[in-house]
Amino acid sequence: MSTLAPALSAPGDARPRHWGRRRAVGVIALVVVLVVAAILSVTFGARDVTAADIWSGLTGSTDTASAAAVAKRVPRTVLAILVGAALAVSGAVLQGATRNPLADPQILGINGGAGLAIVVGIAFFGLGSATSYIWVGLIGAAGAAVLVYAIGSLGRGGATPLRLALAGAVSAVAFSSLTSAVLLPRVNVMNEFRFWQIGGVGGATFETILQVLPFLLAGLLICLASSTALNTLALGDELAAGLGARVRAARLISTGGAVILCGAATAVAGPIGFVGLVVPHMVRLLVGVDHRWLLPVSALGGAVLLTLGDVVGRVVARPEEIEVGIVTALVGAPFFIALVRRQRMRAL
C-alpha cells in the first residue's frame, strides 16, 4: 500500500519542500513539452509545410494545399490534447478508486463497452451524429464498469484488485469479439469504423470537439472534485470510514466521472488504450500520490503522450499514417508487462 500524500508529512520534515520543487519543475517541463508537441503536430505530416504555410493555416486560410493541411491538423491537435488528458485522468481516478495499480479504461473493459455500444447503435439503430455517439458511448462505458465490478465482486473477499483486473480483461475480450461479430456481416459499417476501432484522432473537426467538450469538462470537474476523497480512500476502506468518509459514495462519484471521461473520449477517438495506465504511474514519480496534484498533472501528461504519439504515427510511415492507438499500444504493452512483474505493487 502506498503512503499518504507528501503534504501529510510530519512538521519540520524536508519532504514537503522537496516535493514542492519537484512538482513545480515537473509541471513546467510538461507544459513546455506539450507546447512543443502541439507545434510538431501542426508542422509534421504527410505534406511538408513552411512557416508561412503554418501561419496561413492557423489564420484559417486554405489557399494552398500546405495551408489547408495545417488547417486540418489544428483540430486534430486539439482533439489529441483533450482525449489524452481525459484518458489519463480517467486512469488515475480508476486506479485510486479501486486501489488497483493495473486499472485502466481499456484493461477494465470500459473502452470496449463504449465501443460495442456505439457499433451496435450504428448497425441496428442507425446512429449518425457525434452527439448520439457520445450518449451511447457513455451508456456502454457505464454498463461495462458495472458489469466488471459485479463480476469482480463474486465470491469471498469482494472486488480485489486482481479480480477486477481479471474481470476487466475477460470483459474486454468479450466486448471486442462481440464488436467484430456485429461489424463483419455489415461491410458498410465495417469500412466506416475499421480505423475507429484502432483508435485515432485523424478525423477531428471543431464541430466534433465542441460537441464532446461539455462532457469532457463535466467528467473532469467531477474527478477533480473527488481528489480529496480519493486521498482518503488510499488509507483503506475501514480507516477512511473511521475518518468519516462515505466510502461507497466517494467511489461511485469518482468512478462516474472517470466513466464520463472515458466514454466521451472513446466516442470521438475510438478505444485508445494504455494512456490511462502509463501516464498516472509516470506522473506519480513527479508529483507523488496526492490526487490534488496527480489528476491535473496527469491531464498534462496524457495530452503530451497522445499528441506525440499522433505525430510519431504520421511521420514514421509517410505518406501513410499509423493510428495513434497502435502507437500507444506499442508503448503501453511493455509497461504493463513490467508493472505486472513488480509483485510488490498489489495495491495502491
Automatic annotation (TrEMBL):
Belongs to the binding-protein-dependent transport system permease family. FecCD subfamily. GO terms for cellular component: plasma membrane. Keywords: Cell membrane, Membrane, Transmembrane, Transmembrane helix, Transport. GO terms for biological process: siderophore-iron import into cell. Signal peptide: none annotated. The keyword Chaperone does not apply. The keyword Coiled coil does not apply. InterPro entries: ABC_BtuC-like, ABC_transptr_permease_BtuC. This is ABC transporter permease. It is a multi-pass membrane protein. The lineage of its organism: Bacteria, Bacillati, Actinomycetota, Actinomycetes, Micrococcales. The chain crosses the membrane at residues 24-46, 77-95, 107-127, 133-152, 164-184, 215-236, 257-281, 293-312, 324-341. Its main location: membrane. It is found in: Cell membrane. It comes from Microbacterium testaceum. Pfam families: FecCD (PF01032). GO terms for molecular function: transmembrane transporter activity.
